[in-house]
Amino acid sequence: MAATSSYDRLKELKEFDESKIGVKGLSDSGIKTIPDFFKHPPQTLPDLKSKFSQANTNIPIIDLSNVNSPDHHQKIVNQIKEAAKSWGFFQVINHGIPISVLDETIQAIKAFHEQPYEIKSKYYNRDESNGVTYASNNDLYRSEAACWLDSLKAQMGPKPLDIELLPEICRKEVVEWDLSATKVAETVMELLGEGLGLEPGKFKELTFSQTKYVVGHIYPYCPQPDLTMGITSHTDPGVVTVLLQNQIQGLQVKHEDRWLEVKPALGGLIINVGDFLQIVSNGEYKSVEHRVVANSCKEPRISIVEFFNLSKWKGDGYYGPLPELLSAEKPAIYRNFTTQEFLENFYSKGLDSKSLIQKITIRHE
Ligand code: OGA
Ligand code: NI
């Protein structure tokens, strides 16, 4: 019985994948019920009704204007440090990227996903080897239940991307976005490093912003948003993530065992700490679970996420808490891990638990 049903599921997944229509195509077709393979078990579904009764809390908002002025610098370092420790998530405003660039980037990703099937389906592929993929659910064949989103993904570094591989409709914007988001990521990393008491330029020297992926997600209208997810609960594996989104809400962050809606600040960027940074900071900064609820608005939710991670591993390819941060009072709470372990963690699961962090924890704080 089980074998038959799992066979059917795989067949359905393949049919959907090979049709290349994506969730956007399903949504546009006007279906009123979603295919079974998108349905999540009730225990992992959010209670959509409760979101309106949630306390009016938001992740910290940090104003980066005057970040280089001696009068403001230390205050901003303290704010970022506090946010990364207690929330793992924050928004930055006055980050220096003009609103017009934010808008153009969102519009370009939206325009990509809204192209007619004949044009867009040509890009549909999961083969990561050339640097650009476009598909529905990056983990379609690995996750237990599919999610209501499609994603265009481009590896922007450490090796420069052959930009001709980017769809023409958003090529210029993705390239420009990478430059802008990288600047913000580097600024934030510098402040995070300073918050740990590290030498200036340490994270840059350690190549923490050099491996990077831009992912343009679309969360189309979902006719049964209480049965599926936009993205299931997960933590991001890398150093930091920079997220730009349109004004449709849906991102939720776990804080003190409760799920809180992120209310995007106008002109702001959402930043979060990844597993790698939690480990190298010896648990000082937190990589926090987050998820996206399925979109119940007619207007699609668009997010552009850039993941930053290191390009240069130590020695034969391992990493662990930074020695500068360790002392007799603050011993390492994680053991070193290898590149292999990091990648296995990344690819073995669907987007689910913090398995790498659990695996390498040697003592609890
Ligand atoms: C992710 C992610 C959130 C969003 O891609 O890892 O958490 O709002 N995305 O798209
Ligand atoms: Ni994420």
Automatic annotation (TrEMBL):
Keyword entries, A-Z: Iron, Metal-binding, Oxidoreductase
SUPFAM superfamilies, sorted: Clavaminate synthase-like (SSF51197)
Presence of the UniProt keyword Oxidoreductase in the record: yes
Annotated Fe2OG dioxygenase domain residues: 207-310
Cofactor(s) demanded: Fe cation
GO MF annotation: an example: metal ion binding
Cited InterPro entries: DIOX_N, IPNS-like_FE2OG_OXY, IPNS-like_sf, Oxoglu/Fe-dep_dioxygenase_dom
Keyword Metal-binding: yes
Family: Belongs to the iron/ascorbate-dependent oxidoreductase family.
Protein name: 1-aminocyclopropane-1-carboxylate oxidase homolog 4
